[in-house]
Amino acid sequence: MRLTCFLASLLLFANTAMAQTPIPAPSDVGAAPAHAAKTAPGLASKVIKPGPGKIHAKAPDMVSVHYSGWTTDGKMFDSSVARGQRATFPLNRVIAGWTEGVQLMVTGETRRFWIPEKLAYQGKRVPKGMLVFDVELFDILSPPQAPPDVKAPPADAKKTASGLAYKVIQPGKGTRHPSANNEVTVHYSGWTTDGKMFDSSVTRGGPATFPLNGVIPGWTEGVQLMVEGEKTRFWIPENLAYKGQQPPFGLLVFDVELIRIR
């Protein structure tokens, strides 16, 4: 299995099949009330609890929320509240109604949304029709920024015989290096040399775990140089990445934190 590098649009409600204790539907679940605010695309919303925050999220930002969702007949189809765990995700990787709606909010605010089907799943998957959500916004996090040396490895970067360049950003406290046969848990972000981020476990809100012999060669070689707790920047030439066979093409730059060796 290769290192996953370009996510399909995040399906926020991927765990809908999980057994969850129902959260009672609001009394106005059937339709937006007359006093609800409406946007040009058709999203309706009303503030349930004002928040003390001042800043609004932007589409590339990552947000941390609690939410519950119902169809207009009052059936709950998903709830982070029922699961007891907040959801964290990049705001530009969810349904259009969420991307638009959460940008209207400030931290600490709870808002109810009535999202028409055209701004939800467009009838292509369940749940179909208008969806109703109560959303509480806890935090807004900007995505990782491209490092200043993203275009090319600096003079103080080390290089291996294969052409991999790397630089330790933060030393680790571990003493053991993983082998190619180990499974590792990491946080990482990756950019092309023009500074465009193409993947990040940070923006997904959780570290990635994978067998080290199942990813691109630059990762297999590079992570074996690390110890637990270390953060390293890698400049991976195309012949150690995707070999020009699929995007992202060219030299790839990764910041990697090795959390655990299994």
Written description of the protein model:
The structure is a single chain. The protein has 262 residues and is mainly β. Helix content is 8%, strand content 32%. It has 4 helices and 14 strands. The protein has helices spanning 80-83, 96-102, 201-204, 217-223; strands spanning 37-38, 44-49, 62-71, 76-79, 87-90, 110-115, 131-141, 158-159, 165-170, 183-192, 197-200, 208-211, 231-236, 252-261. The strands form 2 sheets. Strands 1, 2, 3, 4, 5, 6 and 7 form a 7-stranded antiparallel beta sheet that branches. Strands 8, 9, 10, 11, 12, 13 and 14 form a 7-stranded antiparallel beta sheet that branches. A hairpin with a 5-residue loop joins strand 8 (158-159) and strand 9 (165-170). The chain is elongated. It starts with 36 loop residues before the first strand and ends with a strand. The relative contact order is 0.17.
Give the overall shape, derived from the CA principal axes: elongated
Which consecutive residue ranges, at least 5 long each, have pLDDT under 50? 1-18
> Helical region count?
4
Tell me the structural class: mainly beta
Helical proportion? under 10%
- Terminal residue distance: 18 Å
Number of strands: 14
Q: C-alpha Rg, in Å?
A: 21 Å
Order of helices and strands: EEEEHEHEEEEEEHEHEE
Most strands sheet: 7 strands, antiparallel
Mean pLDDT: 91
Work out the strand percent. Answer: 25-35%
